[in-house]
Amino acid sequence: MKIDVVTVFPEYLAPLDLSLIGRARDKGLLDLNVHDLRRWTHDVHHSVDGAPAGGGAGMVMKPQPWGECLDELVPGEERPRLLVTSPAGRPFTQAMAHELAAEPWLMFACGRYEGIDQRVVDYAADRMEVTEVSIGDYVLFGGEVAVLAIVEAVTRLVPGVLGNAASLDDESHNAGLLEAPAYTRPAEWRGHEVPPVLLSGDHGKVDRWRREQALLRTARARPDLLERLDPGSLDERDRLL
Ligand code: 6GU
């Protein structure tokens, strides 16, 4: 998978060199490049923003550097899926992560200030699939942290990136629910015990216990998820809870 990230703060994306994402890049599974938007400015101040049309607080990213950036990074017939970060975007979810993991080429445009001139989005949308995306209902200074989150969620779904594919299997098994709590040794720690069922060796019982915990946790922390659950994914024993 090819990923391009365009930002005015390339250093903010340094964590993409680390850990599992860094290893996926080393393994050649991921061709990830971070670009400084100021490369496509021509004035001495490398300015990327201007006052909002119509007035108001803050600054808006001007279209010229973005236009030239797209011209250079997307020169041919092949088109990326363009993701423009914005608190006004579509909510990023695990379902969208799966959708994006199937794309051969993703390009992220990190919005800063009060956002990017909307004509950049409209212009790009005539040439490629464009999605404005948000990672939640709160406001960040810019899209860089959102891109870190999205790239991590997407790339771990790319075949070969995650060492143990079984952990992905476990997740889809629990689709739409929060995970059951996890424990490791020792069996007792500071007066707190590992639930005995997890030490019983009975895999059927363990699965059933985890399923119940997942349902209880979801009911307590995220009742909205339970309401959106496909009723077909609940069995008779789930319904008795
Ligand atoms: Cl994608 N960008 C900004 N600036 N703030 C956000 C966001 C994105 N998602 C949630 N808040």
UniProtKB/TrEMBL annotation:
<keyword id="KW-0819">tRNA processing</keyword>
<dbReference type="InterPro" id="IPR029026">
    <property type="entry name" value="tRNA_m1G_MTases_N"/>
</dbReference>
<comment type="similarity">
    <text>Belongs to the RNA methyltransferase TrmD family.</text>
</comment>
<dbReference type="Pfam" id="PF01746">
    <property type="entry name" value="tRNA_m1G_MT"/>
</dbReference>
<keyword id="KW-0949">S-adenosyl-L-methionine</keyword>
<dbReference type="InterPro" id="IPR016009">
    <property type="entry name" value="tRNA_MeTrfase_TRMD/TRM10"/>
</dbReference>
<protein>
    <recommendedName>
        <fullName>tRNA (guanine-N(1)-)-methyltransferase</fullName>
        <ecNumber>2.1.1.228</ecNumber>
    </recommendedName>
</protein>
<dbReference type="GO" id="GO:0002939">
    <property type="term" value="P:tRNA N1-guanine methylation"/>
</dbReference>
<dbReference type="GO" id="GO:0052906">
    <property type="term" value="F:tRNA (guanine(37)-N1)-methyltransferase activity"/>
</dbReference>
<feature type="domain" description="tRNA methyltransferase TRMD/TRM10-type">
    <location>
        <begin position="1"/>
        <end position="227"/>
    </location>
</feature>
<feature type="binding site">
    <location>
        <begin position="135"/>
        <end position="140"/>
    </location>
    <ligand>
        <name>S-adenosyl-L-methionine</name>
    </ligand>
</feature>
<keyword id="KW-0489">Methyltransferase</keyword>
<comment type="function">
    <text>Specifically methylates guanosine-37 in various tRNAs.</text>
</comment>
<feature type="binding site">
    <location>
        <position position="111"/>
    </location>
    <ligand>
        <name>S-adenosyl-L-methionine</name>
    </ligand>
</feature>
<dbReference type="InterPro" id="IPR002649">
    <property type="entry name" value="tRNA_m1G_MeTrfase_TrmD"/>
</dbReference>
<dbReference type="GO" id="GO:0005829">
    <property type="term" value="C:cytosol"/>
</dbReference>
<keyword id="KW-0808">Transferase</keyword>
<dbReference type="InterPro" id="IPR029028">
    <property type="entry name" value="Alpha/beta_knot_MTases"/>
</dbReference>
<comment type="subunit">
    <text>Homodimer.</text>
</comment>
<dbReference type="InterPro" id="IPR023148">
    <property type="entry name" value="tRNA_m1G_MeTrfase_C_sf"/>
</dbReference>
<keyword id="KW-0963">Cytoplasm</keyword>
